[in-house]
Amino acid sequence: MQNRILVSACLMGHAVRYDGRAKPLLHPAIDRWRAEGRLVTICPEMSAGMKVPRPPAEIAGAATGEEVLAGTARVVEITGGDVTEDFVQAAENAVALARQAGCRYALLIDGSPSCGSAFIYDGSFSGRRQAGNGVTAAALKAAGIEVFSDREIERLIERVAELESGAAAGA
User: In whole angstroms, what is the distance from residue 135 CA to residue 69 CA?
Assistant: First the structure.
């Protein structure tokens, strides 16, 4: 089996984002990988039982997903609700699915407190971005899965080709 890729469901056109919308990533590589059966789709938050739509959430205090996983930061909704446990469960579900399905990579929507990998929001609900990982992205990276944001699809394409040409050369 070729290397599989865990993908944020919203990037695959599923209306699962907090606001009830999708954010489809249209790219020939997505179509090719889908046809090859490489893609494994998940919305981490929905896998943890969170509803759609739901209040926007951010990692409080300009913290990161790694800090949430370490138990030193919280994920809160704009309404003040604490959804940390849901986000930790979501991350655990994503790691379990990636391992079970043999995913070597993850292609995740950036900015999300769950899936962000290049940037997340700073917890002030003001639209301010900061470099950092969301909770799921941090957990996947800790599990040895290479994580790419939706803006890094070209880099993922190169990485997949690199590994496959190396595997073919070693065969």
Answer: 7
Distance CA 154, CA 152 (A): 5
- Reduced to 3 states (helix: H, G, I; strand: E, B; else coil), residue 57 is strand
- The sign of the torsion formed by the CA atoms of 155, 18, 85, 67 equals positive
Element (H or E) spanning 87, and its range? Answer: helix 84-101
Tokens matching residue 160: 């997949």
DSSP H or E run through 119? strand 119-121
Of 94, 13, 79, the C-alpha closest to 46 is 94
Q: How far is CA 62 from CA 48, 71, 74, 95, in A?
A: 24, 15, 10, 24
DSSP-based three-state secondary structure for 101 = helix
pLDDT digits (tens, 9 = 90+) for 46-100: 999 999 999 999 999 999 999 999 999 999 999 999 999 999 999 999 999 999 9
Residue 23, SS3 per DSSP: coil
Contact 139, 70 (CB under 8 A): no
Q: What is the pTM of this model?
A: 0.95
Report which of 136, 125, 139 is spatially closest to residue 61, judged by C-alpha positions. 125
CB atoms within 10 A of CB 31: 10
- What the block records as the tokens of 44 is 């981490």
